[in-house]
Amino acid sequence: MTATASASASDTTADTADAVPAAAHFRFFTLEVLRTRRLGHSFLRVTFGGESLAEFRSGGYDQSLSLFLPVGEQEHTELPSTDEDTWFGAWRAMPDGIRPVMRSYTVREQRRTDGGEVEVDIDFVLHGDSSPASRWAGRAAAGRRIMAIGPAVAENKSVRFQRPEGCDAVLMYADETALPAAAAILDRLPAGTRVKAWFEVPHEDDRLGPHTLADTDITWIVREKAAGAAARTERVLSELRAARLPGAGAPYAWLAGEAGTVRAVRRHLVQERSVDRRAVRFTGYWRLGASEEQLLAEAYAGKAPSEDPTSEL
Ligand SMILES: Cc1cc2nc3c(=O)[nH]c(=O)nc-3n(C[C@H](O)[C@H](O)[C@H](O)COP(=O)(O)OP(=O)(O)OC[C@H]3O[C@@H](n4cnc5c(N)ncnc54)[C@H](O)[C@@H]3O)c2cc1C
């Protein structure tokens, strides 16, 4: 198991990163909280710094990374090993209650300050205190240190958005967990790119309009508070069914969010709208009722069915 494994992606589209051996694409970083800022109702932006970020190379778009977050009363993340060949076994062997949780998040932005230091923003959805990552973010304070496996080269497999040549429109579905990734993608799309996006959020105040040069038509879907899984998905599908797709028939679709809804949106596009399945990039960012440990355990046991988006975790 190498450092690349946790920043995993089972790629269905060709990537351009093959020139560099995969293990060199990712490495451990120490991230120190510099400040936090509340965005909208559900989001907290945590800005990280630290010397090791000098080597951090986000590829932009939906660049993800794996965070190791302390549990219980621990202030900082401590891992027994960050060696590429031994960290995984050493981390797994740590006792429950001490072992930091590993969670996937998105690099919303990497930038260099006037003083030459690298800063990285990550936007956390606060969805309750009983979930370790959400709980950690809600208590994040300047000076706290965590660890991450992140990109050491900009062209790496954790950038999943790979628009093929010849595509004439971009279709996007994102729920709140994937809104930071969607916004980072829209940041980069050139002027004139036709985009139709469906963004599903829990609260009116979460409609954080992305800044983009692209020609973007966004449908915001504010979820009913007590809606169950089937009702959530059905609401999204009804918005999709009512929509006219842009372009002349060669769209690229990028879908990310709750796994069940992502799967249903993909099926709609492929089966009801005849979108080429090879032009659909879909990733389950989380699954209702399952923690990331459970999803990882399924993936390691090879139980995640290949059509299930969570098999990308
Ligand atoms: C590639 C990738 C990029 C991601 N980027 C981001 C990001 O930038 N920002 C972000 O906030 N999330 C992001 N996520 C999703 C995030 O990893 C999950 O939401 C994760 O489960 C949060 O961990 P936790 O410890 O809070 O909850 P867990 O312990 O994993 O889950 C506990 C319970 O909470 C539920 N749950 C998990 N997430 C949510 C949620 N958002 N709302 C309601 N219930 C939830 C689970 O179904 C489970 O029942 C990303 C995921 C992936 C795979």
UniProtKB/TrEMBL annotation:
SUPFAM superfamilies per UniProt:
Riboflavin synthase domain-like
- Gene Ontology MF terms: oxidoreductase activity
In this chain the FAD-binding FR-type domain maps to: 26-158
Matching entries from Pfam families are given as:
FAD_binding_9, SIP
Q: Which InterPro entries match?
A: FAD-bd_FR_type, FNR_nucleotide-bd, Riboflavin_synthase-like_b-brl, SIP_FAD-bd, SIP_fam, SIP_rossman_dom
Question: By what name is this protein known?
Answer: Sialic acid transporter
- Origin species, per record, is Streptomyces katrae
